[in-house]
## 1
Amino acid sequence: MGGMSDAQQGSGQGQGQSFPDPATVAQAHGKPYPPQEQALGETPSVIPDVPVCAVFLFLFLCAAAGHMGLFKFNMRRGKKFVISGMMFGFCFTRICATTLRIAWSFYPRSVRVGIAAMVFVYAGIILLFIANLFFTQRVVRAQHPHIGWSKPFSIALPVLLFIIIGSIICLIVGVILSFYTLSESTLDAVRDIQLYGETLYAIVAFLPIPIVLASVAGRHFNPNRRSIDKFGTGSMRAKILLILISAVFLDLGACWRAATLYLPPRASTNPETPWYFSKACFYVFNFSIEICVTLAWLALRIDKRFFIPNGAKGPYSYAGGFTFAGEPGNEKIALGNRDSMRHLTGSQASGLNSARVSWGGSRSSLGRASRVSWGGISREDVSAGIGEDGFQPVPYGAFEERIAGKGGFVADEDGDLGSGARSHYAAPTAADVGVQGAEAEMGWDPRSGKWALRPVSSTANLPARPVSTKSGI
């Protein structure tokens, strides 16, 4: 393209040899013109490009099948994890890029095939950057719900995505245009667009590192930090580590591609190719890094680790992504008939409760008027595991109110264990504290911003029939 020195375009005297003027060669070839500058990866040849591309083609086919398989599997279970679909789209661009590069190696003079191969190389990598940014956003919203869901932070990612999409369109148009013009001013403008685009790629790939580190530091040094809005499976530390390692490798490839553009251009007709433009560098800093990240995300099940409930919006709305007992990978021993409710949350579970429990001739639910969304049952001591990432469960307040001298629980006239008209239980058990015991159920209290625990024995196997002050029964 434009901007090459006379020594590079002309006789090559400074290098002790002569080579044709690339502009003259391009003009003789006709449209679309062959490139006038050397680029990362060079023009492919049968050896070594075909076998190398064949290996990457196979790996990306496997990765595409894996991510699409998980996407469909999760959709059948009612869990929409769009990033798995994005990963399939990325793998598809790499399948096309490797296939076109193989075809280009057999027809090295076909400029149109070369254009198509370069377009797919440019268009694909940005999907990995965007996916890592979504992971970063979820970590920030989990660690700092009120900051992560604030308006400035919420609109930052859509604005950045708009800039990225606009930039990639400009890059693709610029790359195609460079093969159909010999105007030096136009070629200089295309080079500026490429420099801008690759620099933007490097910045976007790097962004998750400072954002996640700032989020972790802000939580660590904040004495008044709130509980974590935990989501998905696995610890928060593992999620953060996965984001940071992925960002380091992705940014390494992006910085390499940008650095090669900032170096002085070399004529495409120059037989000497700098080592930083070599095919080895192309495959290492492009396809190798990308397939490692793609397969790592597949093996580590990002669809589980970074899953959030569909329609999550606002602080502490990720809690529905908690994996309760009985879900694949978190199976528990058989509990009994009532545990068929463990997959139901909120109004679904309370609806079944209302049909099962009768208070003095009227049917009502212990959880019908409760503000807490109860989510599942486990025979495990749930208090031991859910404090790992910083949020501390508390016994459900309804189980802490006692009637002086009677040892019973306070319940309202609707059957809710809380404030209001009173009825009494006799003989509470130690498990009724709700923090530990053989069977405990966890729920989210949006008013207090904390997890609540209640014993199943107090809701299903009541020790005595309550006496309602309203009905007189």
## 2
Amino acid sequence: MEYRSIKSNDSNHLGQGLQGKELLNDIYLDLFLNHVHADQYEEYYMQKIDDALDARDEELFMQLTTELNALRASV
């Protein structure tokens, strides 16, 4: 039976660990940017919906509300 040190400093393992951290950072960054982007779209739709209500444009209101609901469902 062969025993190996747990504290092995094998460069291959270190490289894989760094790649894993980079991948995880990329995933978190992507999630954050998607969240910010969705928030900006939601604010845009809310402003356009308010404008449609002020103009009493029911058709535009319904269209924008449907699009906003689809955006919220996709996030």
